[in-house]
Every structure is written in structure tokens, then in C-alpha cells.
Amino acid sequence: MASSADLSKGGVAVTKQNKGPPFKFLVPLLYAPVLPLIRLGLRRNPVLRDRLFTVVLAGGFLHGFYLVTDLYDIESK
């Protein structure tokens, strides 16, 4: 007998369909142009510029690491 989590009304399995764009893959389109803008906009304050640039760059790497590990997790199941 199938579990209630696998089946919905009438005993038919329901799959979730994503109708929108995958926003987690579109995030680099937002933070990629921010990096040069930080360098140009904060020329007069080099300490803040370097710290902010490092934080945004680290955030980008962490986001990419999250996406890659998520893909590997899906493939292993």
C-alpha cells in the first residue's frame, strides 16, 4: 500500500511543476554587475570598498557552492 505522502485524491501521484524561472540560477545576474560598481563607486573609501567587495565575492562563491552541492545531492539520490 502506498503512503499518503506519495498519493493525493484518487490514488494518483501528483508532481509539482515549476512555472516560473529558477531564481537560484538567476542570482549571479544580480551580483555580477555589483562587483565593478563597488570598485568604481567607492574609490574614495578604499577600506569600505575592499571589505564590501570581499563580502560580495565571498557571497557569490558560497552561493555557487550551495548550488553545486545541491546538484550533487539530487544526483546521488
From TrEMBL:
The chain crosses the membrane at residues 52-69. Keywords: Membrane, Transmembrane, Transmembrane helix. This is Uncharacterized protein. It comes from Nelumbo nucifera (Sacred lotus).
